[in-house]
Design a protein that fits this description.
The structure holds two protein chains of two kinds. Chain A is an all-alpha fold. Chain A contains four helices and no strands. In chain B, helix 1 runs parallel beside helix 3, helix 1 runs parallel beside helix 8 and helix 10 packs antiparallel against helix 11. The chains are: A mainly alpha, B mainly alpha.
Chain lengths: 99, 227
């Protein structure tokens, strides 16, 4: 089952990369479609964050995760660095869970 | 002349691209660790980086596997997440049409957000060879896979992840990716709404469909936003 998912995901991903190189698609998609597609990655990645922050382990958070998440946002806005955000986030959540 | 031009383009790709390559190593290692902690087998994790080669999608897959999502749901979510490649490849197509079909199909495999962004900027500055793209994109592929392997090895040595907050590394990575990707106010609205919908669905016990549902709905805000 997991291998089916991995190979299927690989094929699906490759199709999105290769179709425009193989076929002549419309050179300019409608503006509304472009805006939708461009917002998709942000939406899907943010959708992954929601459950992990609001409901870690499937139950309502005790507050450590939302607080740590806020610190990560502030760190990345300030330093523009993914690594700094990850270090601050991991350290913050480890400490906050002790409280 | 052509030879020199290519050598220069290759050096330029490495010279300008190293910060992105450094990030790729860090995120790739994180991926290996997180995937191992989530209980995936080393061979499965290595295969994901080798075959799928799409950072965000691979993280999403780990989360969905950990929640026991069925394969079709995993594939559909990954397909949705990667639809943006259609736009990137469409935009690069004019520069790639000088290659043979086989070369184009090979080059397409290595297309990522990073290689698209770097190559587009190279062409805008008057770059002409595809050597820049090939050098940068293939280098990222190699680094991503090596970093994944390093992460798998590292993941084996870390014990209980929750104790050290390591389980939060993946969430912090996602938050960072979203923050760095924000370009317009509408992006912030999209991100907040997507996170809220997905969080609510997860609380309601629908965690496997939370990502694809919230991910598909929230971009509508960007369609109707003025800016």
């Amino acid at each position: 089952m997991i291998w089916f998912a991995i190979v299927g995901s690989a094929v699906a991903t490759y199709l999105t990369r290769s179709l425009p190189f193989a076929l002549a698609l419309r050179p300019r998609p409608p503006a509304a479609a472009s805006r939708y597609f461009e917002a998709l990655p942000v939406a899907i990645i943010a959708a992954l964050v929601g459950p992990a922050v609001i409901a870690p382990g499937g139950t309502l958070t005790h507050g450590a995760e939302p607080l740590a998440a806020t610190l990560v946002v502030a760190t990345v806005v300030w330093r523009r660095s993914l690594l700094a955000g990850v270090i601050v986030g991991v350290a913050a959540v480890a400490l906050l869970r002790l409280v | 002349m052509e030879r020199t031009g290519r050598g220069e383009a290759a050096r330029l790709a490495i010279g300008e691209g190293w910060p992105v390559m450094g990030t790729t190593i860090v995120v790739g290692t994180t991926f290996g660790v997180v995937a191992r902690q989530a209980g995936l087998e080393p061979i499965e994790i290595a295969a994901m980086s080798l075959l799928v080669f799409a950072g965000a999608a691979e993280f999403v897959m780990v989360r969905l596997f950990a929640e026991g999502a069925a394969a079709p749901l995993v594939i559909a979510t990954v397909l949705f997440l990667n639809l943006r490649h259609l736009l990137m490849a469409t935009s690069l197509r004019q520069h790639f049409m000088r290659l043979t079909l086989t070369q184009r199909l090979a080059a397409a495999f290595f297309l990522t957000d990073e290689s698209f962004a770097m190559t587009t900027s190279h062409f805008r500055r008057g770059g002409r060879t595809l050597t820049y793209y090939v050098t940068f994109a293939v280098a990222l592929f190699i680094l991503w896979n090596l970093a994944t392997l390093a992460g798998i090895a590292l993941g084996n040595t870390i014990g209980e992840p929750r104790r050290f907050g390591i389980d939060f590394a993946i969430t912090a990575t996602f938050i960072g990716i979203v923050v760095l990707a924000v370009r317009r106010p509408a992006d912030v609205a999209v991100a907040v709404v997507a996170a809220a919908i997905a969080g609510a669905l997860a609380l309601a016990g629908a965690s496997t469909i939370a990502v694809i549902t919230a991910g598909a709905l929230a971009p509508a805000i960007a369609v109707f936003a003025r800016k």
